[in-house]
Amino acid sequence: MSLFNQGINLYAAIPNMGEDRLAPLMKAFDSAVRTHEIFRAIFGVI
To answer: How many domains are contained in the chain?
Structure first.
């Protein structure tokens, strides 16, 4: 399965996902977003 399809499947599963699976996913997403300069520039103000 491609990474794109994996992302689609994970995104679709979020509403029904338990806290034990959702928390690590959100932490990994947060870490990935924080590494990109454009997101730091945009969301750093918030």
So the answer is: 1
